[in-house]
Write a structure and sequence with these properties.
Number of strands: 3
Number of helices: 2
Structural class: mainly alpha
Strand content: 5-15%
Shape: elongated
Helix content: 55-70%
Largest sheet: 3 strands, antiparallel
Radius of gyration: 16 Å
Order of helices and strands: HEEEH
Strand order of the largest sheet: 1-2-3
Distance between the termini: 15 Å
């Protein structure tokens, strides 16, 4: 398996976890969250997306899905060659 692919996967997951920990937007670079009055969710001041734990988990799931798909394609290509 490609080491750089594994490193990119780990880096991407850590980036989303860091954003979640520091209450930043999961979708924007440097997107800060502001409280929505009367709600427990937060809204990104940059893109306007509402952030909650499900959004962060969804982004992590996307990263995992893409990694699995990419590694499966690499295995198929290796078998063909």
């Amino acid at each position: 398996m490609n080491v750089s692919l594994q490193e990119k996967f780990i880096e991407d997951v850590m980036k989303i976890i860091d954003r979640w920990s520091f209450e930043q937007c999961a979708f924007c670079e440097d997107g800060t969250l502001v409280s929505i009055e009367g709600m427990l969710d937060f809204k990104c001041s940059k893109c306007g997306n509402t952030m909650n734990p499900i959004k962060y988990l969804g982004e992590i799931a996307n990263i995992v899905f893409n990694f699995r798909e990419h590694t499966a394609n690499l295995k198929i290509n290796d078998e063909i060659e």
